[in-house]
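step=predict obj=TTF-type domain-containing protein n=322
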Amino acid sequence: MKRLSKQSSISIFIKKNKISDSNLSETIETINEEQTIEKTIESSSKLIYNDDISFFVNKILTDAERKLILTDFWIPPNNFNFPIESIRNLKFQIQWIDQFPWILYSKIENGIYCKYCLIFAKDVSGKGNNQKLSKFVSKSFNNWRKAKEIFNKHEKTNYHNTCKIMADNFLSVINGKQISVINILNTERARQAEINKKKLTSIVKTIILCGRQELPLRGKIDFGNVLNCDNKNDGTFRSLLRFRVDAGDTVLEDHFINDNSRLQYTSPSIQNEFVDICSKIIKKKIVDNINNSKYFAVLADETTDISNVEQMSLCLRYIVTA
């Protein structure tokens, strides 16, 4: 497609919008201003992400920006004309980039930054060096007379070496070569949660079985490790748990043998809590069935018990629809 000149685009805009002569100068000025702003935004966008490291100083960086700085940032070509200091007639030397790979040059500030420390270093004194993290981190360095001496000194600081290790780990994680610590912790947490879920599933299923068969849960004793019953009557619930272990429930067996915590989830209070949860689930299902049915009836009857306390029973009848 042929690109129109600025004058042609202005003429077409005037014709299409039927602009009068009185507003012509104002319109042209507005168009020129908009085009100037658009070019400025476009050029600055390219500059921020491709050309100058100074735009990334003292700001919170995204992972994409960190990766860009570490792997694909602008490096001056060999024929780049570095500014010359008027006093000492010195300038940045291109070979320093090969000697010190952590260097990133800023055209705007005519100075350099350490790409590792800029991303990962904190604003504290370097351990053992009594050096504030200003040079190479929050401020550019351009003392070319002592450049190599200070470069070598910076490479030996603890915080620089720590930041370099952090950068290597970051790239390994971002490139999928290594799992991050957070993901490792999340994976282990998920694995442990799945194991705990299996343990509780065996215990809850045993309580549900006792409830459906109208079996009492507790016996004469209801404490201690389930597997150590010593031929005492400790109730149907604990007996069925031992039966599950004998039948091959290795997760439950490991829970009773190797779990160092006292939380066996078999105490009377835990049993009551599980029974109460089952009761709420059953009630919710009954209510949902009634709400989904077309017809239902409510029957209520009141009577007095042996202690002369009035008791009311409630009966719900509904049609189950397919």
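step=describe
The first helix runs from residue 6 to 17.
step=end
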